[in-house]
Design goal:
By secondary structure, this protein is an alpha/beta fold. It contains 29 helices and 36 strands.
């Protein structure tokens, strides 16, 4: 920046000329040649990236000691340089040179930087020759401001044509994609990496070292694409054939605005170098250009620049107020417009109000130093307040001694600031942020009078910037360049054959690069190998992949069963890979196999592998479900027993007793013994094979149900209860077969394992029988739910109550005599049954199961309702459809005589409670007695009789024997011994039973739920 004492030449004594025209006209090249033709020279360039590029070219021509480089944060100044290469802002215009050139002079109209270019246009001159380079749009303004300037027009070497809109994945090779934010640049680079092998990244925020390394990747052909900001529009020389705009808007510092046709042309002009034609277009979300705009760009016809930005460069540093006044001076000539306050002016205004700065900024030197500090660029691109705060700290250190004698920045403070950035770990954004910070300190170090040893600190900051630049280049390369795909594409473009192989681990390699893997019989390509090169890579791998898959199929066809594994999801594994899955077959025990393979496998090999897997599945089912398979194939199971066996096999090992009530009732003892021989257990609630309750067969049965029910095993099933659990809370939205397949029965809020449910029935039975024999003073037929019962099914409280209710019991709170203490074990009568045989439960342990004589009832197979005291009678089974509804199933279906006995017990208990209400409480207790639920009366209300005296067939019941329907009118003689008591102490006369005559000629079902109680009744 010129001071107030500079006296630049504004006349035409020196040769001043302007070389104007579109891009690719050789303007910058000509300026360099003209400069080198003089003894001394200087060229100002719009970007430090371009300045660095030109510096490298010039020093290669004249030697390092003859050329200087000056940018905002970089100064390379030999002792006696002949040529100066600088950015426009950093031009030392007080240095006399024979030749002076300013590139991209049309930037005089730029709202942010234009005032600097205008100052150079009006005041910067070479002693012998001055040259301005730029677009023809500024011709009129130069003619008005620079008298005697002559103009020369240069045509473009190659043609530039519009290619329309293309997807990023279909852009031609050697393309540059232009975006206007770092986020957009990174996103596009990542997309190109996935589809095309990778892209170089160039942004103005990168250090020259990083930018040059990225450009070198592109120029060398390692990648065919470059993603950049509009920085490439300012003279960067690259071999670009096509420029694609990902956006047609940019943020100019204040708001987003559309690009002008001239700006589009400036960037698009990078396409086509020297005599090679170029194209431009749009990509991504950018809208297509209109016809008029396209024609203007192709013909290089643009509206002329009308106003140039201007700011007074002859500043008054007498005081802060004088400085602000001089910055606000109006333009001196027509066609100039006062520039809006740039970053330096905004930072100055904020610092002037800072309480640390204001007392120090008194006097010309202090004010001038404040302005120098304000011109430190905002490399970090932070809020202006934060930037001004940092500058105030720098100024405070510089002025700490006194305002008249400026000091130096303390080295310990400066060192602490630089050390914060001296780290190369982190991602791209972290490294870019550190680079922005170190650039600030590099700029400060290049102010010779701000540090005690500026040369030393310039070396320190340069070394840190180089390390960060190299690390950032490495991260960019790792992130946005897939070298493997890039190399493969090169080979494919050269039409060379690619070598492919398959490793022992199934990795498919092409030219030593991983392109996918074989998982079983399927080739899984590497996602990074997809895109336009995917077909070529697959073609190179197909030959070796097909051969390997065929060899694997033949190995599968010859493998032993131990080589395969069936998972709980129905997949068949081989060498840790899924090669097939189960699908529905003719029945649940005969699923089919669907081979998991690609199109590479031929039909014959596919069939052989499929048949081998089906044989494995058949053998696996036969092994795990051996008891069920033996029952299915048993030749000695005949007659009605064969029908029961068929139902068990069809249900895969367990059926509800109520669902087969008629068949079970009709089974003779020889038939039962025949089924027991194959492991069938006749329980109170279920007919099942206990051996299938173990985890392995249970899980396989669940899988077979799922496959048969859905066609395959891909349905989502909840996690089965853990092995060893006797019950578990039920889950909603599970398939109907879920709990039965696992050997559980849903009982209210819980699912209970079948063998434990039978143990519960076995435990309930003696409790009911004991109270039934003691009489109604003890409550009669029923039982008390105690801890022993609850422990069998692993639940208590409401859950256990709900379980009992679902089994056909209802609670009744009554007062009864206290039960007598149980006799010692040694006094108990010996069991009449034969020695027990062991039946395995779900955990594999043996469960005692008394053997039964063919002519006797098996106590283990009777239901708890036997304890009601009712004589044996035939029952009509009904089907349970809702476990929460009033039970009407076979196991709790109650005969007419049982209803009578239960009603009598209830009546006696109620009467006894009424008689003893005022009696002494000694020997009495209040209990909750669980009783069997009486038979459902049907929708017609109270039980009724048919006209012929038989029970109403539709309602399924009749009136209470020996009297009117219960609840009709007042009860007479209800006390013990009365005519209507219905108990043992009642009327000894014959009880009339007109509903159904006795059938003493029909044998009692030995497995009937009431057989034992019938025997107890007969004993009394």
């Amino acid at each position: 920046m010129m001071s107030s004492t500079a006296s630049p030449r504004m006349d035409a004594d020196a040769r001043v000329w302007a070389l104007l025209g579109p891009t690719n006209t050789g303007k910058t090249h000509l300026a360099i040649e003209r400069m080198l033709g003089h003894e001394t020279g200087m060229i100002g360039l719009p970007l430090r990236l371009l300045a660095r590029e030109v510096y490298d070219r010039v020093k290669d021509r004249v030697g390092t000691m003859n050329v200087a480089l000056i940018t905002g944060e970089e100064k390379i100044i030999p002792d006696n340089p002949r040529y100066w290469v600088t950015t426009v802002e950093s031009m030392p215009v007080g240095v006399p040179v024979d030749f002076l050139a300013v590139d991209e002079i049309q930037l005089c109209a730029d709202p942010e930087r234009g005032h600097v270019f205008t100052q150079r246009l009006m005041h910067a001159r070479g002693e012998l020759e001055t040259m301005f380079l730029g677009a023809d749009t500024i011709r009129g303004r130069i003619k008005d401001l620079v008298k005697g300037c002559r103009f020369e027009q240069r045509p473009r070497f190659s043609e530039l044509t519009y290619a329309g809109s293309k997807k990023i994945s279909r852009l031609p090779r050697r393309s540059a994609v232009v975006a206007f934010s770092s986020d957009q640049v990174y996103a596009i680079a990542e997309l190109i990496r996935r589809n095309r092998g990778g892209a170089a990244v160039v942004m103005g925020a990168l250090s020259p070292r990083t930018r040059n390394a990225q450009v070198a990747l592109y120029q060398s052909g390692d990648v065919d694409f470059i993603v950049a900001t509009d920085a490439i529009g300012m003279g960067l020389n690259m071999d670009v054939d096509h420029v694609a705009f990902a956006s047609l808007e940019k943020f100019d510092g204040r708001h987003h605005r559309a690009l002008t046709s001239a700006e589009i042309a400036q960037i698009a002009g990078r396409a086509g170098r020297y005599m090679n034609d170029g194209t431009f277009g749009v990509t991504g979300q950018a809208p297509a250009l209109d016809e008029e705009q396209i024609e203007d760009i192709e013909e290089h016809r643009f509206d002329p620049v009308r106003m140039l930005m201007w700011r007074n460069s002859n500043l008054d540093f007498a005081s802060l107020s004088h400085l602000f006044d001089s910055l606000d001076m109006p333009p001196p000539a027509k066609g100039l417009m006062r520039a809006r306050h740039a970053t330096d002016a905004a930072a100055l205004a904020l610092m002037a109000r800072d309480p640390r700065v204001k007392p120090l900024a008194t006097g010309r030197d202090a004010v001038e130093r404040l302005w120098e500090v304000a011109q430190v660029p905002d490399f970090r691109k932070v809020m202006i307040d934060e930037h001004a705060s940092l500058l105030a700290n720098i100024y405070d250190h510089l002025m700490r001694n006194d305002g008249a004698s400026p000091g130096r920045i303390p080295e310990d403070w400066f060192s602490s600031q630089t050390k914060r950035t001296d780290r190369t770990d982190g991602d791209i954004d972290t490294l870019a942020s550190r680079l922005a910070h170190i650039r600030t300190w590099t700029y400060v170090a290049n102010r010779a009078d701000w540090l005690e040893d500026p040369v030393y600190w310039q070396g320190v900051t340069r070394a840190i910037e180089d390390r960060l630049s190299d690390a950032l280049h490495e991260r960019l390369t790792q992130q946005f360049i897939d070298r493997r795909t890039s190399v493969l594409l090169k080979r494919l473009q050269q039409r060379e054959d690619l070598m492919a192989s398959v490793s022992a681990e199934g990795e498919v390699m092409v030219e030593g690069e991983f392109v996918g893997r074989l998982a079983g019989l399927v080739f899984v390509p590497d996602p990074r190998a997809e895109g336009v090169d995917g077909k070529a890579l697959r073609a190179a791998a197909d030959k070796v992949v097909t051969g390997e898959i065929e060899a694997r199929a033949r190995r599968i066809a010859a493998a032993e069963d131990t080589a395969f594994e069936l998972t709980e999801h129905g997949r068949i594994m081989w060498e840790s890979a899924a090669i097939g899955r189960l699908i529905a077959g003719g029945d649940r025990l005969s699923p089919k196999v669907e081979l998991t393979c690609g199109e590479e496998l031929q039909a014959a090999d596919r069939l052989a592998a499929t048949q081998r897997l089906e044989k494995f599945v058949e053998a696996h089912i036969a092994k795990v479900l051996e008891p069920l398979i033996k029952l299915r194939d048993a030749d000695d199971v005949t007659g009605l027993a064969r029908g029961v066996a068929f139902r068990l096999v069809e249900a895969l090992g367990a059926i509800r007793r109520d669902e087969a009530a008629d068949d079970i009732t009709a089974l003779a003892q020889p038939d039962r013994a025949m089924l027991r021989k194959y492991g069938v257990r006749f329980g109170a609630f279920s007919i099942f094979l206990p051996a299938l309750l173990k985890p392995a067969p249970a899980h396989l049965i669940l899988l077979l149900h799922a496959v048969f029910g859905s066609g395959n095993a891909t349905i989502d099933l909840p996690t089965p209860p853990a092995p060893g659990l006797t019950s578990a809370p039920t889950e909603d939205n599970v398939p109907d077969f879920f709990y039965p397949a696992l050997g559980f029965r849903v009982c209210g809020p819980r699912a209970v394992r079948l063998d434990m449910l039978e143990r519960l029935a076995d435990a309930i039975r003696p409790k009911i029988a004991a109270r039934a024999e003691l009489g109604h003073g003890y409550g009669g037929a029923g039982f008390v739910a105690d801890a022993d019962l609850m422990s069998l099914v692993g639940c208590s409280g409401e859950a256990f109550d709900g379980l009992l209710a679902s089994l056909g019991f209802k609670p009744q709170t009554i007062r009864v005599k206290k039960m007598p203490e149980a006799k010692p074990v040694e006094d108990a009568a010996p069991a009449a049954d034969a020695p027990a045989e062991a039946a395995p439960d779900a955990s594999g342990e043996a469960t005692p199961q008394p053997a039964s004589d063919p002519g006797e009832a098996n106590p283990q197979e009777a239901t708890p309702q036997e304890a009601t005291g009712a004589p044996a009678a035939e029952e009509t089974a009904t089907t349970e459809t809702d476990p929460t509804a009033k039970p009407t199933t076979a196991e709790n279906a109650v005969s007419e005589t049982e209803i009578a006995a239960t009603d009598a017990a209830e009546d006696a208990s109620e009467t006894a409670a009424a008689d003893d209400a005022n009696a002494d409480d000694d020997g009495m207790e209040e209990i909750v007695l669980w009783r069997p639920v009486r038979k459902n009366r049907g929708p017609q209300g109270p039980r009724s009789r048919a006209a012929d005296g038989e029970p109403n067939a539709r309602t399924g019941g009749g009136g209470k024997p020996g009297g009117p329907t219960r609840g009709k009118g007042p009860r007479k003689g209800g006390k013990k011994g009365g005519p209507n008591a219905g108990g043992k102490g009642g009327n000894k006369g014959p009880r009339q039973m007109s509903a159904r005559p006795p059938r003493s000629d029909k044998p009692v079902d030995p497995d009937s739920p009431f057989a034992v109680l019938s025997q107890l009744k007969n004993k009394s």
